[in-house]
Amino acid sequence: MSSVTGHTALVTGAASGIGLACARALSEAGAKVHLVDLDPGVRDIASEIGGVGHVLDLTEPVDALPAEVDVLVNNAGVQHVAPIHEFPAERFSAMVELMLGAAFRLTRHVLPHMYSRGWGRLVHISSVHGLRASAFKSAYVAAKHGLEGFSKVAALEGAPHGVTSNCVAPGYVRTPLVEKQIADQARVHGISEDDVSSQILLQRSAIKRLIEPSEVADAVLWLCDNSFVTGTSLAVDGGWTAQ
User: PANTHER family, from UniProt (predicted)?
Assistant: First the structure.
C-alpha cells in the first residue's frame, strides 16, 4: 500500500504529458486526484481516471481550487526559446509566474491543511534546467532554478509539521511539448527528427533516449512514499548532470 492511499492529491498541467502520468499513478495508488489544466479537456480526462477536473489559468488566483490537499504536484509549464535580447519581457514574466509564482501560491493554499494533519507531500516538477542552463531558455531556466530554491525553503519550514518538499528534475521527456520542439528544430535545421533528438536534445545525456512520462511519475510516487527525503532534487536525467 502506498503512502498516498486514501489521501487527496492535486496535479497541475494534468491534461497531458508528465502531469497526466502523475495523476494516473496517484489514482492507481489509491489517492483521490484533482487534475488542473488550462485545457477544458482535462474534465473528460479526469473522469476517465476517476478524478476531478478543474479548468484554470494558473497565472490567476487559485482560491477556487480545493485546499484540503495532502499531495501537491506542481507540474504546469511552458517553453519559449529566444535569445535574451529578443525575449519578450511580458512572455518572460508570464512564464515565471506560471512555473514559480503558481507553485508558491498553490503551496501557500494547501499548507494549512497539511500542517493541521501533520502530513503532506510537495513535489515540484523541475527540470535538468533547474540544475543546469542552456542558451536561449532564460525564462524557463530562471523559473526552474527558482523552483528548486523555493522547494528547499518549503522543506525547512514543513519538516516540523510532517510535510516534505522535493523536486524531480527530468531531462527531455516524451511529451507533446518536447515533440513539438523536435519537429520545430527539424524544420529549422533541415535535419530529421531522429537527428534532432540524438544531436541536439540528447547531446549531454549519457542515456540516449527520451524519458517516458511514467518514469517521472514513478519518481514522484517514490518521493511521496519516503518521509525522510526532503529538500532535495531527484535528477531523472540520464546522466546529464553527472558531467
Answer: 3-OXOACYL-(ACYL-CARRIER-PROTEIN) REDUCTASE (PTHR42879), 3-OXOACYL-[ACYL-CARRIER-PROTEIN] REDUCTASE FABG (PTHR42879:SF2)
